[in-house]
User: What shape does this take?
Amino acid sequence: MKDIKEILDRFYKGETTLEEESKLRELINNNQLRITEEKGTLPSELFLEKQLFDFYESEKEIELGDDFDEKLFDKISEKKVVKLNTKVKSLIYRVSGIAAVLLVAIGFYLIFNFKENQSKELTNEDKKTIEYTLDALTMMSDYINLANEHIGKLSIIEESFEKIHNATNIEEYNDYIFNILGEES
Amino acid sequence: MELEDFKIKVIPLKNKLFRIAKRLLNDYELAEDAMQEIMIKLWEKRFELDKHPNIEAFSVTVTKNYCIDILRAKKVSTIEINEEILENRMDNPDNSFEKSELQMLVSKAIAYLPEMQRLVLQLREIEGYSIEEIAFMLDTSIGNVRVILSRARLQLKSILINKYKFNYERY
Assistant: This one.
């Protein structure tokens, strides 16, 4: 039994391996360490260690409750929705910002290209330019369409696109641009 | 890593991480709440997790750091002075099966150890990690882990004998 003394000694120095500790636990559990002749008696010095090992064994079985996973996945989905909303909102702000800039730019372009006849009607050329721009912007807004339910602003912007599409003169056109700019603030 | 992947690779660690949290916080319900937050943190760090060679070790480290932060914030590094409260908080309140008197003593004695000692004991005696693994998780040397483990085991014995008068003759 010198062996055991040595193992215990190293145990308290933190020098035993997992295998040695496993063996120690086994020996203690099976009451195989005897000093006295009496069967089933654990040498009193090791009784404390036995309590410790029993405790560790029972601790291994501690687990979380059954509702843990469900609660967790609920929280994760919540976070996903919040994140999507903020991402989409910022995208919309950015796109409508770009849209507003482009449309204003076109507005200026049209104003500076006044023909001498002072007719403020939009020519076919002008309409083509506007049309191309709207197409590009519509493509962008398609990406955002997913969030249509959540965010009402998007539909207002799309309505304005519609009206611009139908504008026949510069004044109408500028009116609708200001609509979008208004929604920005 | 998508949610399905996360469910396969990280969720199975929940009980182990929970036991570690409970050992550090000395409080069953607090540990339950902490586990929710820790899992969410791990989910948010899933891209880091993908790159890490050892997801389990990474998770243990995150758990340890989170719990230590809580302990610092509460300014309680060991335990409640009131032992009755400690007894009530440490274990599962729903648990109908009671610990034996001896087991309760061991439980309380461990709660009195400094947090690193409690942690190393948990990782070694209960979760069965090797010294090398523990050193990796705690970002420290193997020698240091042995020292902490040695102190923990000696302290625990000492607390049981001196504070709780763990008396061989009685049992």
Q: What stands out?
A: Residues 34-41 of chain A have pLDDT under 50 and may be disordered.
